[in-house]
Amino acid sequence: MSDLTDLFQAVGRLEGKVDAILSNQARLDKRVDDVEARVGALETKEEARKGFLSGAHWVVVAISAVVSFIVPYIPRLF
After folding, report:
1. What is the spatial distance between Cα 78 and Cα 73, in angstroms, rounded to a whole number?
2. 14: left (phi over 0), alpha (psi -120 to 50) or beta
3. Which residues of 37-73 are buried (b: 16+ CB within 10 A; e: fewer)?
4. What are the pLDDT digits (tens) for 28-65?
5. Closest to 63 measured CA to CA, from 75, 71, 74
6. DSSP string spanning the chain?
7. pLDDT tens across 14-33, in order?
């Protein structure tokens, strides 16, 4: 009978450890979800920044093209 009692106690300890592991896993899953949300937000902001810089780049290119076209005609105006 003692062997059976020891076995039940061992199974009970294992069950407690498995419950603790599952609890920690659930906590880690939530932390990973939170980190994924934060990284996603940062990626979205970075893409918006890159889009803005790309647009600003094309504005500078357009202004440079217009200026380079106009500069040769400036001496003729005076």
Report:
1. 10
2. alpha
3. eeeeeeeeeeeeeeeeeeeeeeeeeeeeeeeeeeeee
4. 999 999 999 999 999 999 988 888 778 888 888 888 98
5. 71
6. -HHHHHHHHHHHHHHHHHHHHHHHHHHHHHHHHHHHHHHHHHHHHHHHHHHHHHHHHHHHHHHHHHHHHHGGGHHHH-
7. 999 999 999 999 999 999 99
